[in-house]
Amino acid sequence: MDEFKIPKSHPRYHSLLIREKLVEGFKKGMVVPEGLIAHGRGEAFDYLLGEKTHEFAIASIKATIASLLLAKSPIISVNGNLAALAGEQIVELSNLLEVPIEVNLFYRTEERIRVIERYLKDLGARNVLGSDCKKTFIPGLESSRGIVCLNGIYSADFVLLGIEDGDRTEALRRMGKKVAAIDLNPFSRTAQMANITIIDEATRALSKAIEVAKEFKKLERDELENIVKNYDNRRVLSEAFKTILQRLEDAKRRGLLISFSTHSITK
Ligand code: ATP
Known about the structure:
This protein has helices at residues 13-27, 33-49, 55-70, 80-97, 110-122, 166-174, 189-193, 202-216, 221-229, 233-253, 262-266, and strands at residues 74-78, 101-103, 128-129, 135-137, 147-149, 158-162, 178-182, 196-198. α1 packs antiparallel against α2 and α4 (80-97) packs across α5. β2, α5 (110-122) and β3 form a beta-alpha-beta unit. The relative contact order is 0.15. The protein contains eleven helices and eight strands. Residues 38-39, 41-42, 45, 85, 163, 165-166, 182-185, 188-190, 201-202 line the site of adenosine-5'-triphosphate (ATP).
């Protein structure tokens, strides 16, 4: 039988294509089963947000690229999901801005680190840390979850990460680092803890980030500083919540929401 191909006419074509990439990553040993489940949480929020890159996400992407260009030792922290979904974009961004990548895993095994490292290098990454570095720990993160490279995440002043859990973001913030996080869920601890929250799907956000990076490489330092100074993360989070509310209002207008009294729920 022929291999099943997602028809381009399918209304969820892009979403299904992204799922396939993740499943491919799983088969290659980059993604863990828990990562497949975490993706579902992201998809639900993408659906609620209308599956597009909103203006508020573009503002966060611009602040992130300006910060990466201004930072003394920036780094892109990559896990299995991020590598499987957006490996190409990460490698292009890393090479374009000369920002190193560190493979850093919640469910860490040295084997999985090496598989992801190899995958990124095969895509053309010039500077990837992970297996062959001097290791140390992020204070406050127990066991292997906290292992990082001394010359990578540990000494970075700015970290771009995505599809991460809140503990790591919180621990990095406690170390005094600035964190930009790609996360579709504006309620998540990561979204709330990050200095810059990019509320967008990771592949879309990083494709946009490449466009912005090409443009911002031509800017002067004071222009980049102004972009960072004028950025307001609370406003971005608030815009994301407003968008979800708006989408629910639209559903109500279309008669999809029936009214009921709260009394009937609490009874
Ligand atoms: P937190 O600990 O920050 O509250 P969490 O427990 O939801 O978050 P995880 O279970 O590790 O953390 O999930 C990773 C996060 O990444 C989720 O918030 C999910 O919405 C988000 N996410 C999943 N897939 C994508 C994607 N493709 N693009 C952007 N964000 C995603």
